[in-house]
Design a protein that fits this description.
The complex is a heterodimer. By secondary structure, chain A is α+β, with helices and mostly antiparallel strands. Helices cover 23% and strands 28% of the residues of chain A. Chain A has helices at 2-26, 100-104, 172-185; strands spanning 32-37, 47-52, 68-76, 84-90, 95-99, 115-122, 145-151, 161-164, 166-167. In chain A, the strands form two sheets. In chain A, strands 4-3-6-1-9 form a five-stranded antiparallel β-sheet, with helices on one face. Chain A is globular and about 45 Å long. The relative contact order of chain A is 0.23. Chain B is an alpha+beta fold. Chain B has helices spanning 2-24, 97-101, 169-180; strands spanning 30-35, 44-50, 65-72, 79-87, 92-96, 112-119, 142-148, 160-161, 163-164. In chain B, strands 4-3-6-1-9 form a five-stranded antiparallel β-sheet, with helices on one face. In chain B, strands 5-2-7-8 form a four-stranded antiparallel β-sheet. In chain B, a hairpin with a 6-residue loop joins β3 (65-72) and β4. The longest helix of chain B has 23 residues, at 2-24. Classes of the chains: A alpha+beta, B alpha+beta. Chains A and B meet through α1, β2, β7 and β8 of A and α1, β1, β6, β8 and β9 of B.
């Protein structure tokens, strides 16, 4: 009798939890996403385009909350170190974009040819975004980030080439590495649309 | 003890393939894309289909879905236009972002966030402002792409899937209530069919 009750509870729990787990597994607005820029940045710039799905909103009115900080880290190849980082605040349904070559990597002595770009979404602390403190204290990781890399068209009659960033697994060591390298460089807004 | 272990293993083996099959699917109810080309120069089309995921009868096949569309005009983050499109299983529907979804928005939008929400509709009628409310429940089956137009007829156009995202309760209330003060309309004449 005891086994039957336990089995029934387990089965019901599994059936209830399974759809929820799968629904979230399908979503691509995860906190850690990675992309690569393989076009020659010295010749063709690439932009990062961002929006916020509203996944972290808990209040709809009078003003929808759930703004997120998108923290960006660039690792120009062939190196593997973070040489630039910046942050961009994105409201639910907001659209923000910044240039990899001219804004994220602006302080480099020479524009790199290729780079890995990593994005982490967080709450910020007291409404302030800081790419060097993500995952520490009140600046916790959040869902809601959707990100694309776009390359401008070679001709004005053609559309941008757009590629989604790839949702990835964030290890504690990777989080620490990104934060500490960015803290040394100094976090800043990616551009004037990213206060 | 052996019985319990056997039961657990059998259950795990039954549930595991279902979980993996669902985890790979992209036809989720809430999908988001961005249009960052200048819409006043290059229009973008939203192409939608229905995977048939919500069908329960094969012949004649049921499971039509309503694709509810909500659009912003950046840099504003509010919904400035919404419309809906009924899509039968295996059907293909397409509508223009600049000329149909955002047709009545002034000044003309240059860039936009496009959000799609798939629902059953209510008694066969689609309404973007009631998605997720009452009988107009959210459903799986929606597949969608953004297809930028080009004036160069020989050039191939790049197609980008809209991204499945997480829908919060506040976001659902926000988009549907903003849509409720806008006219409820079909995205174009092909979207108002059965």
């Amino acid at each position: 009798m005891n086994i039957i009750i336990r089995f029934t509870i387990f089965t019901l729990l599994a059936l209830v939890l399974l759809p929820i787990k799968d629904a979230s597994a399908q979503a691509t607005d995860t906190p850690y996403q990675v992309g690569v820029v393989t076009d020659d940045l010295a010749k063709i710039d690439t932009s990062v385009v961002l929006t916020n799905s509203g996944a972290s909103s808990t209040v709809a009115f009078p003003a929808q909350n759930g703004a997120i900080c998108v923290n960006a880290y660039a690792m120009p190849a062939p190196g593997i170190a973070v040489t630039a980082c910046c942050t961009c605040r994105v409201q639910p349904n907001g659209l923000r974009q910044f240039s990899v070559g001219k804004e994220l990597l602006i302080s480099q002595s020479s524009v790199p040819h290729t780079a890995v770009v990593k994005l982490m979404a967080s709450t910020g602390t007291g409404g302030i975004c800081n790419a060097g403190t993500v995952g520490t204290g009140a600046n916790v990781l959040v869902t809601g980030m959707l990100a694309w890399r776009t390359t401008p068209p070679l001709s004005s009659v053609l559309a941008f080439d757009k590629t989604s960033f790839v949702p990835s697994t964030l290890s504690a060591a990777e989080l620490t590495a990104l934060d500490s390298q960015c803290s040394t460089i100094g976090s800043r807004a990616c551009n004037s649309t990213c206060p | 003890m052996i019985t319990r272990f056997t039961t657990f293993v059998i259950l795990a083996l039954v549930l595991l393939p279902i979980k993996n099959a669902l985890a790979q699917a992209a036809d989720t109810p809430w999908q988001i894309g961005v249009v960052n080309e200048d819409l006043t120069k290059i229009d973008t089309t939203v192409a939608v289909s229905n995977s048939g995921a919500s069908s329960t009868i094969a012949s004649p096949q049921n499971g039509a879905i309503c694709v509810n569309v909500y659009a912003t005009s950046a840099p504003l983050s509010s919904i400035v236009a919404c419309c809906t499109c009924r899509v039968q299983a295996n059907a293909l529907r397409a509508f223009s972002v600049g000329k149909e979804v955002l047709v009545s928005v002034l000044p003309k939008a240059r860039t936009s966030v496009i959000k799609l929400l798939a629902s059953t509709g209510t008694a066969g009628a689609c309404n973007a402002s009631t998605a997720g409310i009452g009988a107009n429940v959210l459903v799986t089956g929606m597949l969608s792409w953004l297809v930028p137009a080009t004036s160069n007829s020989v050039a191939a156009v790049g197609k980008t899937s809209l991204n499945p995202a997480t829908l919060s309760a506040a976001e659902l209330v926000s988009v549907t209530s903003q849509c409720a003060v806008l006219p409820n309309r079909a995205c174009n004449s092909t979207c108002s069919g059965p």
